[in-house]
Every structure is written in structure tokens, then in C-alpha cells.
Amino acid sequence: MSLKTVVVEAEQVNGFKVETRARHHIVHVDQPVEMGGNDAGPTPLEFLLIGLASCLLTVGKIIAQQRNLPVRNLSARVEGDIDPDGFLGRNPAARVGASQIRVYLRVDGDLSWEEKEAFVRQIEARCPISDNIGNATPIALVLAQEASFA
What we know:
The chain is α+β, with helices and mostly antiparallel strands. It folds into two domains: 1-41; 43-134, GMP Synthetase, Chain A, domain 3. Helices cover 33% and strands 25% of the residues. The protein has helices at 44-67, 84-87, 113-126, 128-134, and strands at 9-14, 17-22, 25-29, 71-81, 100-109. Strands 1-2-3 form a three-stranded antiparallel β-sheet, with no helix packed on it. α1 (44-67) crosses α3. The protein is globular. The mean pLDDT is 95.
């Protein structure tokens, strides 16, 4: 097995606005105005859902190409239910993460309904983000030294 390490760095830049860097890409994360942010970018939960949707579509494209499936286009709508009282510390009994994530995947292609269902199951089985969300992945949160980032 050969592992590839994916690295993202982030820094709080103004209020709730966070600047993230992935390779040479800079992306801003923020909170909506009603949560105290400036709405300069999607929220962290929205980025998780963006990651899931884009991963599913990418894996679907790979599978369709590998299997020469007559798929013209894929699209997804992802919804996540969250109780803000959990992560805001107002209700210690509330779950801080999403209580449910629903993915609606549309497959535009010359496949029967059963073939589309089988295709969607293959996509789900091979999507790294779906795997990380659906299965507990250990997270090592380590306090870093001031100058420890390159």
C-alpha cells in the first residue's frame, strides 16, 4: 500500500473568515452574517458537503469512463441537518455534527433504472469522502509549535 498525504493549511484572517490553502488554491471559509461572519465564503459544513458532492461526481466520471458507460452527465444535491445549539455550546446534549446527510444523485445517461442504481452503489463504494464521513476516521489533533508550518 502506498499512501499519499493531502495537505491543507488554514489561518483565521478576520473575524470568522478563514483563508485556506490547498496546493496553489486559496479558498475562503466564513459564517453567514446572522452567525457573526461576513459571508465571505461557504461555512465549514458547506465545504464538507461540497467535498462529498464533488467527490461523488468525480468518482462517477472515473467509473463511467472505466466501464464505457453511456453517461452524459452527473449532478448532485447534498443536504445536511445540523443543530447549531450543539457547536455553539448552548445545548451539551445536542450533536455538534450533522444528524443526517442526504445525497440526491442524478444520472443522465442511457441506462435502465436498475443499471443507474448499481452505478450509484459503485460510486458510493469508491468515494473517499463518503468513506471518511460514513466510517470513523481517527483524527489526531496536535498542538503545533509557533513556527512548525513550512
